[in-house]
Amino acid sequence: MAIPCPGTAGIDVIRAIQRWAERHTAERRYSPVGQIFHWTMAALVMFQFGWAWHMQRVDVGAEKLAGYQVHAEVGLLILLLAIGRLLWRLIIPAPLNDADDLGWQTKAARFTHYLFYLCFFGLPLSGWAMWSALGGGEPLRVAGIIPWPNMPFHAVPVSIQWFVLTWAESIHVALIILLIILIPLHVGAALKHHFWSRHDVLRGMLPELPEDAALEVPRKSLQERESQDRKDGG
Ligand code: HEM
Ligand code: HEM
């Protein structure tokens, strides 16, 4: 009797998912799963900035600590979503779009996406290290629901705890600065492609609605677009 191979079953599931996503990527759109990852994580990252700003203004005490706990637990949710998103992205390629062949602009956009992924992992990991080095920290739950352990820094000498705290804080702040630079560039580029160059890039990250045609910006002729792209440096 043939023994079922779990590896083959896994590959079949991946192939089925790829076939499902192909319908969307063939239409030059991210799949609904890719879009949900994008907009959920974008909203959570923006929430983290707003919340961090708020918690810095709360007086030292129980309320401030609770504020940091919310920040940490939302951050851990971002970490889990980043793992899911990376796995998804590895099996489902990004769709082709009008901005795929614009030389330095395409390279810059891809590099920006890599840096975003670096932040999605680096911020929660450095935050988690900071939290764990802060005298053990309160127990955390992902999104306030799933229990999450602290890193075992309570068992190491205080000098090492300080070392971890200082490094983790520097990394956290450096990645925050990186995000503050990247987000406006990324959003600006998305809006420029959509409204100025009339490319289909933003459309690919928006859900497919019945009245989708209303969202379509009249497309420029191929000739017009090529000369525009040459002017843009692509
Ligand atoms: C993508 C996820 C995250 C983002 C965007 C983010 C963003 C921020 C921002 C904007 C600040 C304020 C900057 C400052 O105080 O210097 C901050 C501070 C902090 N974050 Fe995060 N964070 C994230 C994840 C986490 C996680 C998962 C934890 C803990 C488990 C955490 C722990 C902290 C702590 C302890 C501080 C205070 C640092 C200090 O006062 O020096 N963060 N974070
Ligand atoms: C905190 C905010 C945001 C973050 C962290 C972020 C992050 C990302 C990442 C990592 C990708 C690559 C997709 C992937 O391969 O997984 C991406 C793609 C994209 N994002 Fe964002 N995004 C943010 C906000 C926005 C906003 C506000 C817009 C629109 C105005 C936007 C428009 C797009 C578009 C159109 C793409 C597709 C680019 C392409 O395939 O060439 N993003 N974003």
Topology overview:
Elements (H helix, E strand, L loop, with lengths): L5 H21 L5 H26 L4 H30 L12 H30 L6 E3 L3 E3 L9 H39 L25 H11 L2
Antiparallel strand pairs: 1-2
Helix pairs in contact: 2-3, 3-4, 4-5
The structure holds protoporphyrin IX containing FE (2 copies).
Describe the structure.
By secondary structure, this protein is mainly alpha-helical. It has one domain: Fumarate Reductase Cytochrome B subunit (Up-down Bundle), CATH 1.20.950. It contains six helices and two strands, in the order H-H-H-H-E-E-H-H. The chain has helices at 6-26, 32-57, 62-91, 104-133, 158-196, 222-232; strands at 140-142, 146-148. Strands 1-2 form a two-stranded antiparallel sheet. Helix 2 runs antiparallel to helix 3 (62-91) and helix 3 packs across helix 4 (104-133). It is globular and about 60 Å long. The N and C termini lie far apart (59 Å). The model is unreliable at 217-223 (pLDDT under 50). One protoporphyrin IX containing FE is lined by residues 38, 42, 45-46, 89, 94, 97, 99, 109, 113, 116, 183, 186-187, 190-191, 201-202, 204-205. The site of one protoporphyrin IX containing FE has 20 residues, from helix 2, helix 4 and helix 5.
Q: What is the class in the CATH system?
A: Mainly Alpha
Q: Please, how many helices?
A: 6
Domain unit count: 1
Return the structural class: mainly alpha
Low-confidence runs: 217-223
Q: What is the annotated CATH architecture?
A: Up-down Bundle
